[in-house]
Amino acid sequence: MEIASFPEVENIHAIALPLLGYSNLITANIYVLGKGPITLIDAGPKFPGAFDFVKEHLHKIGFDFADIDRIIITHGHIDHFGLAKNIQEAAGKQIEFVIHSEDKWRISTQTLNENIWGKESQELMAMVDMPAYEVEKMKNRFSFFKVLCDPLDEVSTIEDNHEFQGNGFHLKVIHTPGHSPGSISLYEPEKKILFSGDHIIKHITPNPLWETRKDKLKDPNYQSLIAYMDSLNKLKQLDVRYVFPGHGEYIEDLPGIIASYTLHHRERMDLVWLALKKEVRPLFHIIDEVFAYVPDGDAFLAISEIMVHLEMLINEKRAELINPGPPALYRAL
Hints:
Oligomer: single chain
Distance between the termini: 43 Å
Strand order of the largest sheet: 1-2-3-4-5-6
């Protein structure tokens, strides 16, 4: 699937790296900012051929890896930092890697050398009564993720409202947790461009992911869907001409897409409530009533989304836990 060309904006270039076999994401977008030296926003996954694709497209706009001084990582998922170490090696110099403090642990050697599918994930699958064959698919998929990135340990951390100045650009960091606790968006006020990472994507509704490692977070009571909706409200205040997302096409109607996301999550929450109202069952067994279609191997994402909507239902006193299990049982109120 091809995407529309990004608008021509002075000192900002998009490299849309195709994600073959990952049609739901279409591309991993890397943004090149400045006249030189340059800053990258994200670094894509380490797919076969990805490094050469980025190198070729840098050359087309008159740059090489040695021109890169900094890579800002919008969040700690592998498809956003996977090539960073390769790029630094090709540059032949130190490149500053920057990420929000809440996601620093995700990209570290310690985390990526551990079994990414840890006991917390295993416990969640037992709680929702996921069958053994589905659990095995999830384990294999998580193991595969490791080959798509190299860990990063020497990184700088940033917080909300941090600013970056470069030759031809100015960025303000907006902490937009939800997809991950350390997700950020970046706003270029002069050009009115919002680099949204995975917080805003045109062709899909991003997942506010269930956080299995709350022990790693500053706030142990973090709830991703609440955080995500609060982050959307932050972005409503901005004067945005274009949204340049982490995947797929650019966006011109930020208020419209925020409104559609808000409606989507309310409708999804109601589907979870209706499934629980119909019959008390472990959560894995309501997937088909909440989602029209779940790609093979994506059961974890489906469960994650059910969990974050269930948290909201409990907050609103529309559902409650009646048996902690495993498997856990909830009922609609």
